[in-house]
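#structure-requests
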Amino acid sequence: MSTAADASALTADGTAAYQRQVEEAASALPSLSSPTVGVLHDTAVDPLLDDSAVDTTLPYADIPHFPASDGTLTVGALDGTSVVELTQHLHLYDGHTPREVTFPVRMLAAAGVDALLLTATAGSVTPQFQRGDLMLLTDHINFQGQNPLVGPNVEDWGPRFPDMTEPYDPALRRTISDVAREDGISLQKGIYLALLGPHEETAAEHRMARRLGADAVGTSLVPEVIAARHMDVRVLGLALLTEQHLTDDGPSTDAESLQTARTRLHRLLADAVPQLNPDGTAT
């Protein structure tokens, strides 16, 4: 961000600067039709919008104040559903502030995105979920020790204390569950626990996560979900489970099975996004 220090300051002036930066970034995006689905995923998943579906491509470096320069934002459509896609999460463990990590989500919300689909990799901490499974997030536990809402609240964006009792939208979850069933894709459902990282967790930490009620652990998603819900954007979260913890197995070396899982996830997203209804209307 061009004035990262000022915008990250947890003061009234810093918050006002951050709001201006988000709004300037949103203004630089192509006009979005309504409703629009925003898609934010990591590099483990291939882009949803191929060349034939892309209307506009915008390098991150061309977006004012964007806290990353390596990547692109694409705008297009899947079977008539408007989509804006970003292909890289920002992480707290890379030294980004919570406000920087959630800048892309704030920007999308300010630009008019109605629903946000988030994907990331994670490790299973329950014996029932295997390496290569796809997990639909039903809830999460924030164990990162940070929160993007700390500091003065921007009343134009949302309330001081947003309701997080149901962060992942039930209607969107039902829709993608139905699509997975139609496609013959197994979709686990579980709770995601977010840690700061970037080290691999200890065995004791995996046991702790399981005893706290988590089904998988990772190092992303949660800040973005909090910011999206603060701005009343409906959220859907999916995790690709690349590790099975709490077993005697070491790290996975089965690249072929993980690539198969990535292919399944890509197919599920491509089939589900056109059926999502960001405005909440029935299919």
